[in-house]
């Protein structure tokens, strides 16, 4: 489809302008040269005429006059000479002859041509001859007659020159007139040329501006059309023609709008679902006001039209293809409200939906929010990789979608966290319980993901609006608390929100705030519990155990606040403080006594542990061998290179590493092999259960044996009775720790404890 509308004809304006300028320059220079030559020539001619006129004056008037005067005087001389023959008449005649000679002198002097001058001089010489005394002889008369004749001829000759000069002047002035005429003509031509040039310049400017206009129209990224007051096309650009697939015939000036609309109604560029497209289009064209509308065409494109009426009637319309823009806006809007992986609603949409549902709740309806997360998802992700993890999330999303009604909203709110808003149920509690049970059941069915057979589970927490909350945050928070409870209860189950959960959560929040201020308020204190070597029967060291002296609650046990400190990350600051305190305290003890400090897995994640230990040892001056760090299996469960590197770094400093609470977790032997521990501490639960559970003895025996073979010390925790002590000794444990010897005591009591212990040992001995 060729571009129509703003077509232009003929060679380019620039080419025109260049050749024209060149021609104009040549002609102008030529005319100026001609004009200058003619002018100079005319000036020369005028000078010649003036010189000639002066000469003519001299010869034709002065010389001729004097010749005439000489003739007259000569006649008087003749008359006097021949009036009488006496000397008196002769002398008078001679005087007259002198006058003739004077006149001849002037005539000769003023003669213009050499010939007349010569002739004049010859005549004068002859006249001068007459002054000589001579008789009235016929020869004299003859000479006088000759002289008269020669004077007459000289007179005629001079007059002839005058007449000739008159003719010449006439000829000169004719030529001069001609030159003037030529000069006028060339001036007129020059003026014409200048006018022509001005005209050409104006039309070239006009041509150029219309070229610019055409170029601008063609360069527009939008379609452009202009119609007159009778709805006929004035101009349009190629984009317009291409946009509506109009052929050349329909883009010619004068084409009626109706013809264009009719073509569009059959070529697939009409407005979609418009029953009266042509009439509607005509009505739009006739509207006398500025309008902006957006149309979707039958071929799917979306065109934005902006129409502006003209003062002269008719209108200009800009047609912009906004399909891509609208599609990407839709895409952005979709992404803003959906989870990119599963296509479910995201948190933003979830909140907006709950807001909407809460409006209905205000009118007496009820709705429930179900929060769920997947059990074991992290394991799947870590062991089978993220692509399987992603596939699992998509499969979960599909199962959830299949479980709900169209009016319910399923959303993904986090990694493996989903929420469902259920509305419109008559009995929301029963409906949400049924849905929650269906979810737990559906997600417990194994997933077949490619080659992988994946088993997960889910826990669900339910909050009902408005009973459990009348705003988005509260509802989500309460459903989340119920979910937490379901997980606490053993997972793969659902739980409704209960108000005491909120009370617990509040208490937890208060505790967290107190804990934050406790660090700076100096409310922590370290207690120490002795560890006794059974072979040597002596205290080999103490375990540092943290205490929180709360201003109102009194002394808070570590089990109550350590998990919270770990969750909030506060354990890092607190833990470093404990290490510094313990090292400084142990430095004061008798030589050889060790201090054991508990280290949380969270501290290993934070990379400041090693530098903190180095700094505590350096500032206290404690020998690294006297510091023992107790870690649990959880640290090794994050069995990554960074953790092991940190442990080895600590070991290389000389610090000893113990495995605490062994037997409570997975008690995997591989953990014992992954790092060369110095000590295994058997958890107190085994010691406590000794009497009731004979298998505990077997475990203690096994661990003690393991310790022996790995070359590790084994310490039994929680020894409270003599019986337990004896049993531990019998099973081969190298050390014990427990209330039997001493509860954890403040640092100030250590010295006394040591001396009492010594006395006790000596007494036994
Ligand atoms: P743990 O490291 O296993 O410490 C031994 C716990 O057993 C201590 O409890 C101690 O008081 C208690 N215990 C010792 N002998 C007996 C006994 O004969 N009978 C009974 N019933 N209990 C006994 P505590 O001090 O309450 O500490 C509890 C746990 O808190 C510790 O267990 C340790 O995991 C953690 N903890 C204590 N202090 C710190 C600390 O500074 N940092 C970290 N990260 N955790 C600490
Ligand atoms: Mg410990
Ligand atoms: Mg322990």
Give a topology summary.
Layout: H1 13-81, H2 87-109, H3 114-129, H4 138-219, E1 223-227, E2 233-236, H5 238-243, H6 257-267, H7 277-286, E3 291-296, E4 302-309, E5 315-321, H8 323-337, H9 347-362, E6 367-375, H10 377-384, H11 386-403, E7 409-412, E8 417-423, H12 428-444, E9 447-449, E10 452-454, E11 457-465, H13 472-488, E12 494-496, H14 499-521, E13 524-533, E14 538-550, E15 554-556, H15 558-568, H16 571-586, E16 594-598, H17 601-605, H18 609-620, E17 627-631, H19 633-637, H20 641-653, E18 656-662, H21 669-674, E19 679-682, H22 684-688, H23 694-710, E20 713-717, H24 722-731, E21 735-737, E22 745-746, H25 750-764
Parallel strand pairs: 11-12, 14-16, 16-17, 17-18, 18-19, 19-20, 20-21
Antiparallel strand pairs: 1-2, 1-5, 3-4, 4-5, 6-8, 6-11, 7-8, 9-10, 13-14, 13-21, 13-22, 14-15
Helix pairs in contact: 1-2, 1-4, 2-3, 3-4, 6-7, 10-11, 11-12, 14-15, 16-18, 18-20
- Overall pLDDT level: 87
**Structural class by sheet pairing and helices:** alpha/beta
What is the total domain count? Answer: 4
> Cα distance, first to last residue?
114 Å
Q: CATH topology of the largest domain, which one?
A: TIM Barrel
Top CATH class of the largest domain: Alpha Beta
Instruction: Look at the structure and name the CATH superfamily of the largest domain.
Output: EAL domain
Main beta sheet strand tally, sense and closure: 8 strands, mixed, barrel
Overall geometry comes to elongated
* Cα Rg: 66 Å
E-strand count: 22
For the biggest β-sheet, the strand order reads: 13-14-16-17-18-19-20-21
**β-strand amount:** 15-25%
């Amino acid at each position: 489809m060729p571009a129509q509308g703003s077509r232009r004809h003929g060679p380019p304006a620039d080419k025109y302008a260049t050749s024209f300028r060149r021609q104009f320059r040549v002609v102008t220079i030529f005319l100026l040269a001609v004009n200058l030559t003619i002018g100079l020539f005319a000036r020369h001619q005028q000078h010649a005429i003036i010189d000639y006129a002066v000469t003519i004056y001299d010869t034709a008037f002065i010389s001729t006059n004097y010749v005439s005067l000489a003739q007259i005087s000569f006649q008087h001389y003749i008359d006097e000479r021949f009036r009488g023959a006496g000397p008196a008449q002769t002398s008078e005649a001679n005087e007259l002859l002198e006058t003739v000679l004077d006149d001849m002198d002037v005539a000769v002097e003023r003669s213009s041509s050499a010939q007349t001058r010569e002739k004049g001089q010859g005549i004068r010489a002859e006249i001068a001859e007459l002054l000589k005394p001579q008789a009235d002889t016929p020869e004299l008369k003859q000479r006088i007659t000759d002289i008269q004749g020669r004077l007459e001829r000289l007179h005629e000759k001079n007059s002839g020159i005058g007449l000739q000069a008159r003719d010449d002047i006439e000829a000169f002035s004719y030529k001069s007139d001609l030159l003037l005429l030529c000069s006028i003509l060339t001036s007129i031509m020059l003026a014409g040329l200048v006018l022509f040039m001005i005209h050409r310049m104006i039309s070239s400017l006009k041509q150029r501006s219309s070229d610019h206009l055409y170029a601008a129209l063609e360069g527009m990224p939008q379609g452009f059309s202009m119609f007159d007051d009778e709805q006929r096309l004035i101009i349009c650009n190629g984009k317009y023609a291409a946009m509506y697939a109009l052929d050349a015939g329909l883009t010619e000036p004068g084409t009626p709008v109706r013809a264009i609309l009719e073509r569009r109604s059959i070529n697939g560029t009409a407005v979609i679902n418009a029953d009266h497209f042509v009439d509607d289009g005509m009505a739009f064209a006739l509207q006398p006001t500025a309008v902006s509308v957006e149309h979707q065409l039958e071929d799917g494109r979306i065109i934005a039209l902006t129409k502006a009426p003209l003062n002269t009637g008719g209108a200009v319309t800009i047609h912009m293809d906004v399909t891509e823009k609208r599609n990407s806006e839709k895409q952005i809007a979709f992404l803003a409200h959906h989870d990119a992986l599963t296509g479910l609603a995201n948190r933003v949409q979830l909140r907006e939906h709950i807001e909407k549902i809460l409006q209905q709740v205000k009118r007496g309806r009820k709705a429930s929010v179900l929060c769920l997360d997947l059990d074991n998802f992290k394991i799947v992700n870590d062991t089978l990789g993220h692509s399987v993890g992603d596939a699992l999330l998509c499969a979960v999303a599909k199962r959830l979608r299949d479980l709900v009604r169209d009016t319910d909203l399923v959303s993904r709110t986090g990694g493996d966290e989903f929420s469902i808003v259920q509305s419109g149920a008559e009995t929301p509690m029963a409906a949400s319980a049924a849905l929650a049970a269906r979810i737990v059941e559906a997600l417990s069915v194994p997933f077949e993901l490619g080659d992988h057979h994946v088993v997960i589970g889910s826990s669900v927490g339910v909050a009902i609006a408005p009973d459990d909350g009348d705003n988005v945050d509260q509802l989500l928070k309460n459903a989340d608390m119920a979910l937490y409870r379901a997980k606490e209860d053993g997972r793969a189950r659902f739980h409704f929100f209960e108000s005491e959960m909120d009370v617990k959560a509040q208490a937890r929040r208060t505790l967290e705030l107190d804990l934050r201020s406790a660090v700076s308020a100096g409310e922590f204190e370290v207690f120490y519990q002795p560890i006794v070597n059974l072979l040597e029967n002596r205290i080999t060291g103490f375990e540092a155990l943290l205490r929180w002296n709360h201003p109102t609650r009194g002394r808070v046990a570590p089990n109550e606040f350590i998990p919270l400190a770990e969750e909030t990350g506060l354990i890092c600051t607190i833990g470093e403080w404990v290490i510094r305190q313990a090292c400084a305290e142990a430095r004061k003890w008798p030589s050889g006594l060790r201090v054991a400090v508990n280290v949380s897995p969270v501290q290993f994640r934070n990379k400041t542990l090693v530098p903190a230990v180095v700094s505590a040892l350096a500032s206290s001056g404690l020998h690294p061998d006297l510091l023992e760090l107790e870690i649990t299996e959880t640290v090794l469960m994050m069995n990554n290179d960074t953790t092991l590197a940190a442990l080895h770094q600590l070991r290389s400093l000389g610090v000893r590493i113990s495995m605490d609470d062994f037997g409570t977790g997975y008690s995997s032997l591989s953990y014992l092999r992954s790092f060369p521990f110095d000590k295994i501490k058997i958890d107190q639960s085994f010691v406590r259960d000794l009497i009731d559970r004979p298998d505990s003895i077997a475990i203690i025996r096994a661990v003690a044996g393991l310790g022996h073979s790995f070359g590790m010390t084994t310490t039994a925790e929680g020894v409270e009775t003599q019986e337990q002590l004896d049993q531990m000794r019998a099973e081969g444990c190298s050390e014990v720790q427990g209330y039997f010897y001493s509860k954890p005591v403040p640092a100030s009591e250590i010295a006394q404890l040591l001396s009492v212990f010594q006395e006790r040992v000596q007494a036994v001995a």
